[in-house]
């Protein structure tokens, strides 16, 4: 609930929330802030392992986009997003990391990206390109059933096509990743640690896109 609905943690101490739980789940005990944080981190870790497995089974190549964002507290963040075409010829976009950075210089961001990728145990070719808000024709073309139907007849060609087409598709702007951050980092959540912010944003994205 706190991840999917972006509820502030202070709700667990609110009298109305206690009344709600007593009606819908009277057998549940109200947990503490510490327990809530621990449960969210555990869910984050579990979903991350599922995503690693999904990526390893569904793609040979992953392309990345990196967006920068500044919170209302004037803190800088980068959002690392993976783009790949799965075995069903569906374009996938998955937020990998959402990290606070001390500056937006190329050197600082490169080190942060390298650190993030080391946790995913990935060897990825990174393409830095200007983003666009338009949906590319290639992305629309992949929605046609023809790709999926013929991939079994021409497996090598299909593999090459998936790898090559992922590159231009990955330039599609990732504003979708930032539709959540403004709410997660609102004044009611301003005391959250950068690690908790990343856990909330990434986990919510993974759960929504299952």
From TrEMBL:
InterPro entries: HATC_C_dom, RNaseH-like_sf, ZnF_BED_domain_contain
Domain HAT C-terminal dimerisation: 146-207
GO molecular-function terms, A-Z: protein dimerization activity
Cited Pfam families: Dimer_Tnp_hAT
Source domain of life: Eukaryota
Protein name: AC transposase
Organism (species): Cajanus cajan (Pigeon pea)
């Amino acid at each position: 609930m706190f991840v999917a609905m972006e509820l502030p943690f202070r709700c667990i101490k609110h009298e109305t929330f206690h009344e709600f739980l007593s009606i819908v789940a009277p057998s549940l005990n109200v947990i503490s802030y510490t327990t809530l944080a621990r449960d969210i981190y555990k869910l984050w870790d579990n979903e991350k392992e599922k995503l690693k497995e999904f990526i390893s089974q569904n793609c040979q190549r992953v392309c990345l986009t990196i967006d920068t964002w500044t919170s209302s507290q004037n803190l800088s963040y980068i959002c690392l997003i993976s783009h790949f075409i799965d075995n069903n010829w569906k374009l996938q976009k998955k937020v990998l990391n959402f990290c606070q950075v001390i500056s937006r210089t190329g050197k600082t961001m490169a080190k942060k990206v390298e650190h993030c990728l080391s946790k995913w145990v990935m060897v990825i070719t990174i393409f830095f390109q200007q983003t666009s808000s338009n949906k590319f024709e290639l992305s629309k073309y992949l929605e046609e059933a023809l790709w999926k139907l013929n991939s079994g007849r021409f497996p090598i060609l299909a593999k090459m096509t998936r790898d090559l087409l992922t590159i231009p598709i990955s330039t599609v702007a990732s504003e979708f990743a930032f539709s959540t951050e403004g709410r997660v980092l609102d004044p009611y959540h301003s005391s959250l640690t950068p690690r908790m912010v990343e856990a909330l944003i990434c986990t919510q994205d993974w759960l929504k896109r299952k």
